[in-house]
Design a protein that fits this description.
Elements (H helix, E strand, L loop, with lengths): L24 H6 L8 H21 L16 E3 L5 E4 L15 E3 L7 H8 L1 E4 L3 E2 L4 E5 L3 E5 L8 E6 L5 E5 L4 E3 L2 E3 L1 E4 L5 E5 L4 E2 L1
Parallel strand pairs: 4-6, 5-7, 6-8, 7-9, 10-14
Antiparallel strand pairs: 1-2, 2-3, 8-13, 9-12, 10-11, 13-14
Length: 205
């Protein structure tokens, strides 16, 4: 099939200013029979179709509504916040903004927490935790990170954090070696990424 040219008047909706009457739902389900339908029915039907086309043309992905049954893994909608969501479980009536069990953000950016994990490999953390070697972490709040007691030589734990918060890094045994000495606990308060490398016996900054 050759390329179809996009009409240049999709923003003009049929009968937008004309006489329209919505048929009963039973009539919509039954459709036309041997009859002469009123012009208002035709105007309503054509207007609804035109409006749907114009809406999709304008938004790209339709806005969520409470009456459509969305299908798991197949349906995408635009929330009232402008975010595009993907349906996780078949449902209707569940607003994607407030129902994470049914919906998730369809696309992530490198500036979002999920994007950092998706594109760079960061795991976002908001409470104290024990680090796993060769993992990157992003601290959302002030917390304490406990480095593994041992790891393979050259294993790395990478830490990054939100600006203006302080992260405590410690080991249960041994020390952490830094340029100013060694200690079992150090404070991570610079606005930069820090790599902790295991040299076979201790962690080095």
């Amino acid at each position: 099939m050759p390329r179809i040219t996009k009409p240049d008047t999709l923003n003009v909706v049929w009968a937008d200013q004309g006489m329209k009457i919505k048929p009963e739902d039973s009539k919509i389900l039954r459709g036309w029979v041997e009859e002469v339908p009123p012009l208002q029915f035709f105007n309503w039907l054509d207007s609804r179709q035109d409006q749907a086309i114009a809406h999709i043309n304008q938004h790209g992905i339709p806005v969520w509504d409470a009456v459509t049954e969305y299908q798991a893994g197949k349906s995408y909608v635009q929330g009232s916040d402008g975010t595009v969501y993907k349906c996780l479980s078949t449902n209707f009536g569940y607003d994607p903004i407030s129902n994470p069990a049914q919906w998730e953000e369809a696309f992530v950016s490198i500036n979002s927490e999920s994007g950092r994990q998706e594109y760079i490999g960061y795991v976002a953390q908001s409470t104290s935790f024990a680090a796993i070697a060769n993992t990157r972490y992003y601290a959302l709040t002030p917390l304490t990170v406990t480095l593994p007691d041992s790891a393979s030589v050259a294993s790395v734990v990478t830490l990054s954090k939100r600006p203006n918060i302080t992260v405590t890094v410690k080991v249960n045994t041994g020390t952490i070696s830094t340029s100013v000495g060694a200690d079992s606990t150090i404070i991570f308060d610079i606005n930069d990424e820090v790599n902790f490398v295991f040299n076979g016996s201790v962690w080095e900054v």
